[in-house]
Amino acid sequence: MAIHRASGSRAPSNRNGLSKRQTRPDTFVAKRLNRKKFGYVGDVHIRGDVSVADQLVIGGKLVVEGNLEAGQIYCFGEIEVKGHVRAAELVVGVGVQVGRSVTVSYLETGCDAEYLASMLGLADAEDDVDDSYLDKLVHPEILEEIQLERDDYGLREYSVIVGEDLECDGICTVGGIQVSG
Question: In degrees, to the nearest 5, what angle opens at C-alpha 40 toward C-alphas 36 and 63?
């Protein structure tokens, strides 16, 4: 999977989207996202709809102002969507907040980076995660912030907040579930 860097960045960058002059990757910002696969090591903010046919992997926080649809969604941080979410799998490091409805086969929150990496097939036979792969999925500075956020999320009452309907076949969450609809 190609890891994308933020558009509009002027500084030279390496393959992970990191500027040689900065420690944290720029936020990837776009009006909409329509791809077969998409991955980014940092935060992503989409001002419209997201449609990813296969796998969406986000190293930081994902904010979508429209609807989010993908085969599999793996986000190391938190997901905020104003519209609807539709996916086969939705696996999140911190929590998910959706303004409208969620339709997924499987939903899991509170996952640490090693677990997410193993779900992506990056663990060896002894179930150890190769750190070099982790660096390609999430920037180390963001990973530290997410760990602090995950620790804080454990104190929150809800890790899944849905504005309308929640339809899923399986769910595993560290906090409560709030469905307003």
Answer: 90
- Residue 10, C-beta contacts closer than 8 angstroms, at least 6 positions apart: none
Q: What's residue 118's pLDDT?
A: 85
Q: Do the beta carbons of residue 108 and residue 172 sit within 8 Å?
A: yes
Contact partners, residue 14, CB within 8 Å, separation at least 6: 20
CA distance linking residue 2 with residue 105, whole number of Å:
26
pLDDT of residue 75: 95
The SS3 call for residue 149 is: helix
Which pTM was predicted? 0.82
pLDDT the model gives residue 111: 86
CA 163 to chain CA centroid, nearest Å: 19
